[in-house]
Input
Amino acid sequence: MTEARSRVGRATSNTFKVLFGLAAVVAAGATYLAITDSSPGAAAQPGLLWLLIANLILIAGIATVLGLRVYRLVKENRETHGGARLRLRIIVLFSAAAAIPTVIVAGFLAVAINRSVEAWFGEPVRNVVVNAQAAARASVDDVKDDATTELAAMVNDLNTPDYVSALDKNPQSFRVDLLGGQAQFRDFARAAILSSDHNRISEWVGPGALPFRIPTEKWWRDAEEGAVGGIVDENEVIAFVRLKAYPDAYLYVSRPIPPMLSQRLALIDADNRRLREAEARRNSLAVVLTLSYIEASLLMLLGTAWLGMTAASRIAMPIGALAGAARAVRDGDLSVRILKPSVRDEIADLADAFNEMTDRLSRQTAALDRGRIDAEARSAFIEAVLAGVEAGVIRVDKDLKVTIANASAQTLLGFVYRPGELTPLARVAEEFVSASRRSIETGQSVDTSFKRPTEGGTMHLQVRVAPEYDGAGAVITFHDTTRLVLGQRQAAWRDVARRIAHEIRNPLTPIQLSAERLRRRFSSQITTDRETFERCTDTITRQVADIGRMVEEFSGFARMPKPTFGEFNLVDMAKAVAFAQRMATPAIAVSVNAPAHPIVILGDERMLAQAVTNVVKNAAEAVERKLEGGAKFGSVTIDVLEDGDEVQLTIRDNGPGFPAQDRERFLEPYVTTRKNGVGLGLAIVTRIVEDHGGRIWLGDNELVSSGARVDIRMPVQPKHIEEPAAYAGEGVA
Output
């Protein structure tokens, strides 16, 4: 780009020099022609005017070339955000330095031109020319008047009888003695007598006589009328008159004008003619002189501007290059270097110092970059390790402010860590503060566990705080043991359920058989208080049946079957559960809000339908209890939602809702608020959901004043969930 601009600049410079030289030669030549000829009309010659007009067009072309150069500078200034300001200022200053005196001189020159033109065409000059012409004409008129006087005397003499008879008697003697004598005596160079048919009757020609001029028709008319015909010019005076004493005779005489007088008259006439022509070209003369000055001024202005541009290029361009290089270094480009000027001066020293500075900065920056890259590589490795760890990792400084937190820690504790932002540990996890402070103060690791309430229930965290070797902070590692704790509890409860079911199932059958046998055997024999006997045996049979059902629940919880995965439509399953519940409880509105399209997931449809049915049934029973208390309307809604690669079922009701404290314990076995409930329903639901890789949490129905909400969230394609080894394979013996 720079090389292309340099080539364009050189081509523009050469073009300007050629055109400027040509225009200067033409302007100088035209000005020389205009001022060397002192005649007023010389400067107004049409050829000179057109030459100046052509030269003005050439100067306009030069101005265009210069304007293009200035336009490129302005464009470069915009592109470089002020990189050509100094050059433009120098050009403006040079142009102003040339324009100001040019304008001042223009005023004086305008006055000078007007005065010069007025001097050329003023009244004194005109009077001189007119008076000279009048003087010359007066001399000619004197010659004419003298010739007229002599002509009259000669006519009188020729009209005497002696002359008339002499012409008839001796024409030769008349020609030589009489006619020639009269002509010589009266200073005529030629004398001739003509007849009306233009024949020369007699003629005398003296020395210096000019060629004979044939009389014109006007001369003849003037002679016939008794006047004197003829002509007076710068060469001679001719008179033509009729001789009345002769029957048919006309006298023709001529007298040459003296050569000096003739030449003076011709010169004066020529000057007068040129003066009139110059007056006719007076405006053209002013235009020529004005164009000469304008062209000289423009050439001076353009030349000065070009000199300013050249000076700007030699002075400002190195400074501009240095400023641009400094901006590049400011923006981080340390590879920029400045070309050394051809002339050794302060700017060259500055360029050397700048290049040495950027070279040193480049080496230092390269070393820093290598160190930074190594540090970033180590940091990236550590971050990758921390990101891949499922446990949460937090680093705190001695003021217990978080300086590092991996993704698992942010997910488990529900906060967002921004690098560089020191967040107090108390704001993130207040439970960690005491253990972290104790670890930093004692310099020993601290192991502890916490229960942390969340929207989905209580989270069990196993925490270890390790102090840093210099006491600058501590590293906190923790992981979620909620599922492990829940699994251990469920394993323990399944073992209890298996043992209870084993111990209770054996005597149930003999008890039931004995009660039935007593009823058959002694029912007819009892005559007194038979009703009491029947009631007691019915009670035994019914309680045994209830205990049997309880044992079946214990057995079912103790030996939960493995889910059989297959694809099914979750929306259809939810609608089927809602339909069955509507049939069971017509007084309660059971509805499903789901997308119109199918939601196909991978899971055990029977077990998930059992789990959802259990939750919906519990909700309906809670609503029934509220309706018995006087409520007017009961509803249960099932919302089916898609969220990326997971699905969520939300069951809401407008019943009394869950207790606010320890509500997550309802997901554990044998925890219930119902009088006749065993407390295994939600525990079984939790086990089914977890076997599908999902999670369940309890909450409040935010859409009504009171009510419960159960959220079940599962993956669309769950991974295989293996049963913990601690309770694998357990069942009822």
